[in-house]
Request: fold
Amino acid sequence: MLISVKNLKKEFRNGEVITSVLHGLSFGIEKGEFVSIMGPSGSGKSTLMHILGLLDRLSSGIYELDGKDTTKMNDDELAFFRNEKIGFVFQSFNLLARTSVLDNVILPLTYSKNRKNVKGRAKDILKSVGLSHRYNYYTNQISGGEKQRVAIARALVNNPSVIFADEPTGNLDSKSGIQVMKILQDLNEAGNTIILVTHETFTAEHAKRIIYVKDGLLEKDYKVEKRRFATKGEILK
Amino acid sequence: MLGIIIGVGAVIIIMSVGAGAQSLILDQIKTLGTDLVGILPGNSGEDGPPTAVMGVTITTLKYEDAQELKKKKNVPNVADVVAYTKGAGALVWKSNSYDTSFSGCSASYMNVEGGIIEEGRFFNEDEETNLSKVLVLGSTVKKELFGNSQAIGEKVKLNKHLFEVIGVMSERGTVAFQNYDDQVFLPIKTMQKLIAGVDHLGMIRVRVDSSDNIDKAMSDIKLTLREQHDIKNQEGFDDDFTVRSSADALDIITTITDALTYFLTTMSALSLLVGGIGIMNIMLVNVTERTREIGLKKAIGARRINILSQFLIEAIFVTLFGGIIGILFGVFISYLISVGAHLLGYNWNFIIDPFSIFLGISVSTLIGVVFGIYPANKASKLEPVEALRYE
Reply:
């Protein structure tokens, strides 16, 4: 089991006010799965992704990643896990401005223990997402779709155990969105574990399994019967 | 950054100018000679300046004191003695008038102070005591008052009295901050009785036969003056005079210029502090502006120490860069000052103490560390999820 969550709860404190967001979720995700975490706005899906991605800590419950209890980790251990085991793709790309495409992809490797052939690895990954002609472009000189592909390359460069994609097509036109979904599906075919967070059923159905969160509770957890495949003709809403 | 540039630049300039001024003063005093002993009226502490230089008129030194000091039985190592009473006023020749300072002095002036007569002669010992109305002009006074006309034998008016010009000194320049050319020399008794209306002296200067004998001579001078003034206490507490050698003057001036340099260095250190706070503010704004970047870096595996060192290095880089510009700026301005001083006729040395460069670099680096650590620490403590959410 790659991800194992038991009775996960999260509440936010703001002075005296305590807001409970997740009320006790339990599920598991195996290596090689492609899971969509779905739900309406305010359902807690982003909070869940932040916790699963080790960007935030849970309030109570158990979360094991790759067999390790993450609740007992200190900040540096969490940082190490984020670097080695997790790749992120954000809705708003979060690329460094005034920095080349290649350097953006290299960035995670600078915090890694394995710093051999950093440039070569980054170039190979960029080639695999079809950006070999953009190595030295600055991130403000490329299109939105290309930016998201740079972000995917950055997420992949350290060969992580799981890739989290938070509304990766949210800021893209439909053509670029399809390209991104195609890359994610291809990555999954190649054996990568993908966890996609979205509020759109259409996008969610590109995954093999959907975990539906509503009001901080796991409402449904089901296999996608009619899985969608990103192809050229497809229209992504 | 401007604060750092100005602060470091100021430290360099102040230390350079301080060293330059000190070497200038010391050179000036050395040209006077180290075998001179000055006696001023009034007591003073061991290290402080004599009371007389504070602008207080003290009347304890008399002409007779100078006469006693001249005697070999009192001061065996004496070479010669000159007594002074000084004043200032206008000298008038025909329709020309010129304001200058008057040195009433002994005929032995040139034996003690040096100087060369250009034309005519200096006054003699008879004229020193018999109220002769004669005077010797400094070269500037001659030029201002007479231009190219003949001055020797001319009568000039000073305080209603007509004086005969008997000599003109050759140009000597400024030595120990005293302009030797812009003054008039007249017999001490004439000065006391006819011009100043006093019977005390402003100063006595003694030239000792050798600078090795200065200490011996100074103690002989003190003994003689105590006897003259009926002072029983030999510890010096009751003395109504102060004896100083030019070596003492060197010490005092060194002390004063050092204190001044320290004071100004402290002031510029304050501007460095202000500059440092400016850097801290800039870095804090920088951290806020780059919150998302910090969040992202943490999300992809940056540890606290990575973020901390990144911002600390940036702060140090900024201040160090400012410091280096400040050093170049300071050296350049110091050089300009030395060139300017040369143009004004001072023999000013362009001195850059390597220590001041070291100080500039280390202080600016230190400021980077001290004022960078707070913003860097703040950045490193940001929670990744909070930082990523920041708009």
